């Protein structure tokens, strides 16, 4: 059995693996895809101390760093079920899609999240070429340009407020008849001169010139199609944690995020979690890496304090 078994090889999981291996404990890493969401992104400019890199480049560096340590990497595998230990200090089981079951005294869940997509023509074609999901990450790429935000919940309205300070103009499209964000956010949004809010506006197509986004089409409340010229579309209709496989084993909140305390501990003794799969706010690479390190140090602390039953 492993002392520390990490599920997920994005920034949080890779960081946890390095921190665990450096303690000299038996460390396993279920690595479906090194880099995680970073593999879906082009430019990264906010990984502190690296002014500019790309997702694939940072992912390769992450993998090389993990492989420099004694980590048992289990590639191409997906965890399908967690069997928590019957008693604190006991062995947890993790079932894999291949049918194998791994055992470990501590488990760190770092299975990340994925953005809900609009599912309209042009969205996949222009991903990273005008279609974006993360305003903290990609907002500055649209300095002085026109963008839309699709989604009128808290994340959509926050994104519109954030982007309005950077870009020339923001069009916020909300499918329903009114914004669903908190009132303070809607009030703040209403004060911004370079934001247009469209309600009953269903985004139906993202258009481009083969290289970049040039506009979008939405179906209005009048049933007619309308066109907006712009350079970017931020899709803000939900970040979904990859935690369904945990079922009721660990406590999750209404969004499906794993509830962690400030040590990265979950509701199950010996099971820790880190990164976008958790309740930790602000889903970013630097944060996921920090949280992964923290979860590994907490797991090590557990190993030395909690005796096997
Ligand atoms: P993830 O990166 O999601 O990694 C989780 C890993 O677990 C994945 O490899 C996944 O395949 C795997 N996994 C999922 N389920 C299972 C399972 N059941 N069993 C085994 N493995 C599983 N952040 C920034 O800081 N700067 C940026 O510029 C930036 N740009 C972004 C651009 C895009 C398009 C996207 C989508 C995100 C961007 N982010 C950016 C956010 C950043 O990528 C995430 O915050 C970060 O990757 C989260 O790390 P993580 O390790 O928690 O999860």
Automatic annotation (TrEMBL):
Record keywords, A-Z: Flavoprotein, Oxidoreductase
Domain FAD/NAD(P)-binding: 2-292
Protein family membership: Belongs to the class-II pyridine nucleotide-disulfide oxidoreductase family.
Domain of life of the native organism: Bacteria
Cofactor: FAD
Protein's name according to its UniProt entry: Thioredoxin reductase
The UniProt record lists the keyword Transferase: no
Gene Ontology MF annotations: oxidoreductase activity
Interval of the full protein contained in this chain: 212 to 520 of 527
Oligomeric form and interacting partners: Homodimer.
């Amino acid at each position: 059995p492993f002392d520390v078994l990490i599920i997920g090889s994005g920034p949080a999981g890779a960081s946890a693996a390095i921190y665990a291996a450096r303690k000299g404990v038996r460390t396993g890493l279920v690595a479906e895809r090194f880099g995680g969401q970073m593999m879906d992104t082009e430019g990264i400019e906010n990984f502190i101390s690296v002014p500019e890199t790309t997702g694939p480049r940072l992912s390769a560096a992450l993998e090389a760093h993990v492989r420099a340590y004694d980590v048992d990497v289990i590639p191409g595998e997906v965890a399908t079920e967690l069997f928590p230990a019957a008693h604190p200090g006991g062995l947890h089981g993790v079932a894999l899609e291949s049918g194998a079951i791994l055992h470990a005294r501590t488990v760190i869940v770092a299975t990340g999240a994925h953005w809900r997509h609009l599912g309209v023509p042009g969205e996949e074609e222009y991903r990273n070429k005008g279609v974006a999901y993360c305003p903290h990450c990609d907002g500055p790429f649209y300095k002085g340009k026109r963008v839309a935000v699709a989604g009128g919940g808290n994340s959509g309205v926050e994104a519109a407020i954030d982007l309005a300070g950077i870009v020339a103009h923001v069009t916020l499209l909300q499918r329903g008849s009114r914004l669903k964000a908190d009132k303070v956010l809607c009030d703040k949004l209403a004060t911004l001169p370079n934001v247009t809010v469209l309600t009953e506006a269903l985004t139906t197509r993202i258009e481009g010139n083969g290289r970049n986004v040039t506009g979008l089409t939405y179906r209005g409340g009048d049933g007619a199609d309308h066109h907006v010229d712009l350079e970017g579309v931020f899709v803000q209709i939900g970040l979904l944690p990859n935690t369904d496989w945990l079922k009721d084993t660990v406590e999750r909140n209404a969004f499906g995020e794993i509830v962690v305390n400030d040590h990265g501990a979950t509701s199950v003794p010996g099971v820790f979690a880190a990164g976008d799969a958790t309740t930790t706010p602000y889903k970013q690479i630097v944060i996921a890496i920090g949280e992964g390190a923290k979860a590994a140090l907490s797991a090590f602390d557990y190993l030395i304090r909690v005796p096997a039953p």
